[in-house]
Specification:
Blueprint lengths: L1 H13 L3 H7 L4 H9 L6 H11 L3 H5 L13 H5 L1 H12 L2 H22 L1
Helix pairs in contact: 2-3
């Protein structure tokens, strides 16, 4: 689904070559070609760049929505907050062990706060 949508958006909305679009989103042409062939998937940051460039939702790109329109919600500003994006990007870059360690640390902080409040 992603490969088809990428190819369709590129040819219908921009008529860019793969090389031209790859340059826009700052990836190698061969990498972008693999996205369109379905042999590779973009990371979160690249998927976001593509969605932003075409003004579509990442759900549309991933086939989770039939509509190209971005959903609006009351938390849109929160999602654009740089600290939120930094935390989310950091979470995506962690491996499973690092995520578990981060969750354990957050649980420790939560319990410490609860004890302090009693």
């Amino acid at each position: 689904m992603l490969a088809d949508r990428l190819r369709s958006l590129r040819t219908s909305k921009t008529n860019f070559t793969q090389a031209e679009f790859a340059k826009k989103i700052e990836v190698a042409r061969t990498t972008y070609a693999m996205y369109e062939q379905g042999n590779r998937e973009p990371d979160y940051k690249t998927l976001k760049k593509i969605a932003d460039f075409y003004d579509v939702s990442s759900d549309y790109l991933l086939g989770r929505s039939a509509s190209e329109e971005k959903k609006t919600d009351e938390h849109k500003d929160d999602l654009r907050d740089p600290q939120t994006n930094l935390l989310f990007d950091g979470w995506l870059e962690m491996d499973d062990d690092q995520r578990k360690e981060a969750l354990d640390f957050m649980e420790y902080l939560r319990s410490k706060k609860e004890k302090k409040g009693k």
